[in-house]
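Subject: Sanity check before I submit

Could someone independently write out the structure tokens for this chain? I want to compare against mine line by line before I put it in a report. The sequence has 228 residues.
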Amino acid sequence: MSADVKSNLAVVRQRLIEACRRAGRSPDSVLLLGVSKTHPAETLMQAYDCGLRDFGENYMQDWFSKKDALPVDIRWHFIGHLQTNKAKKIAAAAYMLHSVDSLRLFEEIDRRAAEMSRVMPCLIEVNVGGESSKSGVNENELPALIDSVSKLPNIELRGLMSIPPYLDNAEEMRPFHIALRELRDRMEASTGHRLPELSMGMSFDMEVAIEEGATIVRVGTDIFGIRA
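---
Independent answer below. Compare away.
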């Protein structure tokens, strides 16, 4: 086993534990998602052998080229931009979809999930930074989208996800994580729908995200190294 992956994962887990301690939370309240995009199956297997079971992928072709070589109990999270013409294959293989950002896409996922007699856990991607270069809904669109998605029988809406602007200092990311948490709280109060999951924070800012309520942190580089 590569000492790097093993030691990297140990360091990240300790960072998670310490951030939870500062926030007065249980480490069990935060899921560590290993962002494995572009890394080969052999590297993922090293993390699996250290007990990691949740992996995040961005690109369907890359993901599908390696998933069959890995254990079947891995929980695959799709965190990339999802295209409707690929919804069937991804819905068949994913444990959770993190980056859904339109009713049209939710309806396609619902239809494909129904064909497989499954209910698909999903998160709504929110564009917390208002960046035109990024996907995600804005705050004004969210109430109507939540209301419509809640009526789809084969979608389990679990919460919100964000990819905020990248800033030089992790502490500068805090306002974006606060914004997503507060938005989630307002949406729960106004729509009556529970949204327990907040997928926010990556290698650079995972501690700040955990302190502000993240339930899923997406960590790639600090576990697997620089992407190929």
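---
OP: Matches mine. For the report I'm noting this point. The longest helix spans residues 3-23.
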